[in-house]
Amino acid sequence: MINFIIFVVIMIAADVLIRYSLKQAKAKKEIREREAALDKGLNLDFSHEAVSLKRVEVENPKARILCVDDETVILDSFRKILVLDGYSIDTVERGREVLALIQRNHYDFVFVDIKMPEMDGVEVTKQVKHVRPDIDVIIITGYASVDTAVETMKHGAMDYVEKPFTEDELLEMTKKCLIRRKDRIKKELGPSVHIAKMSDFESREVDEFSIPGGAFISEGHCWVSINEDGTVKIGLDDFAAKMLGKIDGVEPPNPGRVIVRGDALFNIKQNRRTLPFKSPVSGKIIKVNLRLAEDPGDITENPYNENWICMIDADHIDKELGELKIGRSAVGFFQEEITSCRAHFKDIVEKRKRDKSLAGVNGFCFGKIDSLTDPEWKRLTLKFFAK
């Protein structure tokens, strides 16, 4: 037994060592490739795009950056530091060269020196944000020009880096700006909606909306899954679960009841309020999920899988399925509802004179419905769930 334990420990240690060695080898290979790209890029001629342009491109860059500074030593530092860390870099020495480049190429960032002849950093910032508002501008400044750098932020600059800078300072600042950029883009695009396997729902992100592959979605935000025997399971979809947040109770229908599509099927309890959901299909209720009576909060964590609410022996399933959404149409429906919900909450916030308690992830108020007044709650639930 002891020998077996020793063997297992040795195997685990060997696996960890191999993984670490492979990771280190991969990192060294990437550095060698980036060093080679740096040497190659400096020997290529890009003067047809801009007279002073030097370009170094790496595979799968973290971001594409255009650096503008009339000091070549600063540009050399940017190239060496950022390329080796995985960024693709273009550098030019004059502000006027920037305008043609940003119209011809994709960049995530423009780093620009505040003090340059002909066109200074302030003017470059204005021009970049006017022509390409999607590009983030970072100001390069000396200590004496910090106030001016801060002033450029009024014209759309994201941040500034102060000269002289260390390698770590530049890398840390660039990393933070990249995170801010990705977060902003994510908010602008809004929450994502995707179709996934049932097994994937345990690890879903808070700002992601999921729809099970093969499941149908009703306009009143119930999901329908067809069993092998032709019966159907029905539950609350991810849009409803995320909007509602904490659920205090589930009132399932009575087994044996015959129901018509559009009739009230089950109720969700939240504080003192009751929210009915309409049946997406007609038929006889043959089973209910009693476990949810004990743990209704499970729906909030994962509205699919085992958290179905009731099972129906459907009468007109072939006809009624045509009224439901599946696949791309379900994704499109979710996206439309999310957009509408964001606008609805925005209107509520404005009427409340910018009540920040309703600020939600990506503009969608996850779990904030219980903070609404009774009239607000009624209008919202009628709009999204009384279909």
Secondary-structure element string: HEEHEHEHEHEHEEEEEHEEEEEHHEHHH
Please mark out the parts with pLDDT under 50 across 5 or more consecutive residues, or reply none.
none
What structural class do the secondary elements suggest? alpha/beta
Give the proportion of residues in helices: 40-55%
List the total number of helices.
12
Largest sheet: 6 strands, mixed
Structure summary, number of beta strands: 17
CATH superfamily of the largest domain: Response regulator
Task: Count structural domains.
Answer: 2
State the shape. Answer: elongated
Distance between the termini: 64 Å
User: Roughly how many Å is the radius of gyration?
Assistant: 29 Å
Please, could you describe this protein's structure?
- By secondary structure, the protein is α/β, with parallel strands linked by helices.
- It folds into two domains: 31-189, Response regulator (Rossmann fold, 3-Layer(aba) Sandwich); 192-331, OB fold (Dihydrolipoamide Acetyltransferase, E2P) (Beta Barrel).
- It has twelve helices and 17 strands.
- It has helices at 2-42, 72-84, 96-104, 121-131, 146-152, 167-189, 238-244, 291-294, 298-301, 317-320, 328-351, 374-385; strands at residues 54-56, 64-68, 88-92, 109-113, 136-142, 159-163, 192-196, 208-212, 216-217, 222-226, 232-236, 249-251, 258-259, 264-270, 273-278, 283-288, 310-314.
- Strands 1-3-2-4-5-6 form a six-stranded mixed beta sheet, sandwiched between helices. Strands 9-10-11-17-16-13 form a six-stranded antiparallel beta sheet.
- Helix 4 (121-131) links the parallel strand 4 (109-113) and strand 5.
- Helix 3 (96-104) runs parallel beside helix 4.
- The longest helix is centred in the N-terminal third of the chain and has 41 residues, at 2-42.
- The N and C termini lie far apart (64 Å).
- The mean pLDDT is 84.
